[in-house]
Structure formats: structure tokens, C-alpha cells
Design goal:
This protein has 162 residues and is α+β, with helices and mostly antiparallel strands. It has 1 helix and 13 strands; from the N terminus they run H-E-E-E-E-E-E-E-E-E-E-E-E-E. A hairpin with a 2-residue loop joins strand 5 and strand 6. 33% of the residues are buried.
């Protein structure tokens, strides 16, 4: 009979474990910043608004023509607030009665989609940036650029993304 010496099997070393955890964290962060939420509702209404056009009865119109399908009725957009349209990646707001504006819901910091609207502030869950949906301005960083304005037109009681 021969006697073999039994060697204990060693597990992964510390360097391998730390590298694996770091790679997993990076994957999660990149996925959160780069994907849209297609499974959710196409619009979310909250308490604030933002824009690019006014109705035909007064004010200015930032959109020229009615190029797309109707997004909403003017009555669906609360004054001083807005409504998010997830599929179109736009938020439409009404800063003052009859004045409608629209902005991209893509954060200008790291291009994360934003769907959290409270009062007149839309927030990015990736890094905490906050924007006014009434004028697109940055209210809290790390973002430094305002939201991209989109053009909407109002024809009667229908709001259309130009």
C-alpha cells in the first residue's frame, strides 16, 4: 500500500474575489445608466411641468407643425407641473396656464433615463441630479447642463411632439 499525502484544495485568492466583486458592480452601474424601461407605463403624471410650446389662443409656440401623434390633451397636464411620457422619453409641463413646454427625460450627467417626477422636479436615480420641468434648469448636481428642450405644438386641446 502506498501512502499519498492529501493536499488541501485552496479557494480563490483575495485578489480574484475583489476583482469579481468590482466587475459585478461595474456591470450593474453600466446597466442602470444605459437601459430604458420599456416594460413600464408610457406616461407618468406627477406634480410639475416643462416645455416648448403654448396653445394657439395665446403665448408662443416653440414647435412648428404637427409632425407626430398626439401625446396628451391639454387638460392632462397640470399647471405648475407635468407628465412624463416614458416611451417618448419626454416630459411635458405647463409652467403657466396655456403655456406648454417639453424636455428630454434623459439626464445630462450620464444619460440615465429619468421617471421620478415630484412637484416641478424630475430626479435622476443614477446619481441624484435634479431638474426643473418648468424650464429644464439644473436644480441639483452632479449634472451641470440643463435638460434638452423638445418642441411640442398645441392644436385645440391636443398636445403633439413636433
Amino acid at each position: 500500500m502506498t501512502s499519498e499525502s492529501v493536499q488541501p484544495v485552496s479557494g480563490p485568492n483575495r485578489r480574484a474575489v475583489v476583482a469579481a466583486v468590482g466587475a459585478a458592480g461595474l456591470t450593474v452601474a453600466l446597466t442602470a445608466c444605459g437601459s430604458g424601461d420599456k416594460a413600464s407605463d408610457s406616461s407618468t403624471e406627477q406634480g410639475a411641468g416643462g416645455g416648448g410650446a403654448t396653445n394657439s389662443e395665446g403665448g408662443s409656440s416653440a414647435g412648428a407643425g404637427a409632425g407626430g401623434a398626439a401625446l396628451a390633451k391639454t387638460a392632462d397636464i397640470p399647471e405648475g407641473s407635468g407628465k412624463i411620457f416614458k416611451d417618448e422619453k419626454v416630459v411635458v409641463s405647463q409652467p403657466a396656464a396655456g403655456d406648454f413646454k417639453a424636455f428630454s427625460t434623459i439626464c445630462t450627467h450620464q444619460n440615465c433615463p429619468m421617471v421620478d417626477l415630484k412637484d416641478d422636479i424630475i430626479s435622476c436615480t443614477c446619481h441624484g441630479s435634479q431638474f426643473s420641468v418648468l424650464d429644464g434648469s439644473v436644480k441639483k448636481g452632479p449634472a451641470v447642463k440643463p435638460l434638452e428642450a423638445k418642441q411640442v405644438t398645441v392644436n385645440g386641446d391636443s398636445i403633439t411632439l413636433a
